[in-house]
Amino acid sequence: MTFRVFQVDPIDWMMPYEYEHEAMQKLGGELIIGNCQSDTDVIEQAQGAEILLLSWQPLITPRAMSALSHCRLIIRWGVGYDMIDADAAAERGIAVANTPSYCTEDVAEHAIALLTAGARRVPWFQERMRQGGWPQAQANPIYRMRGRTLGIIGIGRIGSAVAWRARGLGLRVIAYDKYLKDDEVRARQAEPVSLDQLLAEADYISIHVPLNKETRHMVDAAVLQAMKPGALLINTSRGPVIDEQALIRVLAGGHLAGAALDVFEEEPLAPDSPLRQMEHVILTPHYGAYSVQSWPDMRVELCQAIADWVQDGWSKQVVNPWVRPNLRPRMPVEA
Ligand code: NAD
Question: Distance from the CA of 303 to the center of ligand 1, in angstroms?
Answer without folding.
Answer: 22
